[in-house]
Structures are given as C-alpha cells and as structure tokens.
Amino acid sequence: MSPANVDPDGPPVPKAEGRVPVSVIIPYGGGHRQWLTNQLTAVITSIDAYTDTPTNVLISIAANSPDALIDANHVLDRGRLRDRASVVDATAKRGPSFARNSGVNAANADKLLFCDADDVVDLPWVQELCDALDESDIAIGVHKYDAINTESSARGWVVDQELPSRFGHLPFGSSSAMGVRGDVFARIGGFDESLRCGEDLDLCWRAQYSGATIALAPDATIQYRLRPGIGTQFVQTFRYGIGDAQLMRRHRKQGARRSLAQGLKAILGMVHHSIGIIFGPARQRSAYRAGYVVGHIFGSVRYQVWVA
Prior knowledge:
Layout: E1 20-28, H1 33-49, E2 55-61, H2 68-78, E3 85-89, H3 96-107, E4 109-115, E5 120-121, H4 125-133, E6 138-144, H5 151-154, E7 177-181, H6 182-188, H7 199-209, E8 214-223, H8 230-251, H9 260-279, H10 283-303
Parallel strand pairs: 1-2, 1-4, 2-3, 6-8
Antiparallel strand pairs: 4-7, 5-8, 6-7
C-alpha cells in the first residue's frame, strides 16, 4: 500500500510482517508526554477488553517537534510498553496526514483505527469501532467532554447523536475517533497531505465517492481535549474555517455548496458568538463558533469561493 503523497526519499518505515487484523495509529507531534501516556494506556486497556482479535499500536512521529521521538521512547520505556506499541518515524514531512499515512503503511492491517495523542479513548472504543467496521467501510466514534476538561470549558458542548455534514454535502467524521477498512484506505490513497486541515473530512467524502459506506459508532466514545483558553480555541477553528474554503473549492463539483443566505446568517450569528465570548455561560464554545465564521470569511477571499 502506498499512501497518498508519501515521500519516497523519507526515512525507512518498519513494515509489518504479513497483514494484521487491527492496528491503532496515533500521530504524535511532541510536547505532551503525559497526554501521550494517558492515551496510550487507555488504548491498550481498550484493546485488552477486546480480546478476540490481535491488535497492534503504532505511535507515528510527526515532524512538528524534535523532541517527539524522545517523548515516545520515554513513554514506552517508562511504562514498559515496548511489547505493546511501536514507533514509526514520520518526520520526513510535516503534518498529521503524513504521520497517519506512514503509520498505515507500517501497519498493513485489515482494520485501521485512528485517535489523537491528546485525547483519551473510553473502554469500549476498540471493540465498538471494529464491530462497526464489520458492517461499514468507515466508522466514526463520538466525542465526550466531561472527563478531561474543566467544567467551564466543557459547558455548551453536547455528545453527537448523528454524523455531521457540511455544505449540504455528505456526512463525515473526525480522525480523532475513526475506523477505516484497510482496503478502502488503500483504494482512495489515504489522507491527502496537501490539505492544511480538514483531511479527515476530505477522506470521508472521497471514500463515499468511491462507493464506501460510513456509519456512526455511538458507543465508540473518546474524551476529547478542548483547547486551553478562549484565544487558542478561536485560533484553532479560525484555521479550520480557512481550511473549509479549500475543501469547498475542491469538492464543489461533487455537490458541496454554501448559499449566500446561509453565509449571511452565519456572519450575523458571529455577533451573538462574540457577545457570548465576553458574557455568555459557554465562552469557549462561543469562541469555537466565532473562529469558524471569521476563518470562513478569510478563506472565501483566499480561495475565491463563497464559504462564509
């Protein structure tokens, strides 16, 4: 399997001997050893609860930090986890997409499960995603917010009851809690490394164009870590909003759309969100929504497509 846009001149990636039933891929960019420890421990605990199928874990080191590889090895050694997880060097190219693709290339697995190093999967996560992949080509887990965030920052966030959609287009899910069948991942070429963000949305849409099915796995829950502080939350979704414009430009021929009325309604809603940042009870959620709208406006100008 050759993931999309993988640099052939990059460092060698260890290849699994023969196909394995299930692999969990965790991209890691460094800087948060304890978060990685927490997530890795949670993943292994979830695997141990799912006893029917051998499952391996790969920590794929992104090129975001020179200390990421040191961190990962420290976590494995200190936790005595060398027999439960391995490290993939994906430092040849920046970005989580390259890290995930490199992890998949090393995994050589029938079922691919993706999560992020700063979150914490719940106990049934592995089993629920794997069971869902028996019926669907892509399975999407659910974010929860109550365990690893402060009460004030988690206020206003709700647990998903159905798959989200965007721009009147197809459903999608986040790579922070996603399962994909290995043959489908190979068929569409993996995550697109040219995208600044939104690569998981793009992957879900391209898979569906190819005939793949997608389903929500409501019991495959993770504890999702919100960005600390209103400013960092705003910046995160501002970048996502700009990325949305790039996605719109790429997928509008397949049906993605945004009417002028929808955009103007969102811009007017930004006034409400801005007031909520200052006075509202769910200030971080308001910053999340406001960041998206401002990012959409900037992205519409940059990519010459209406996405506000």
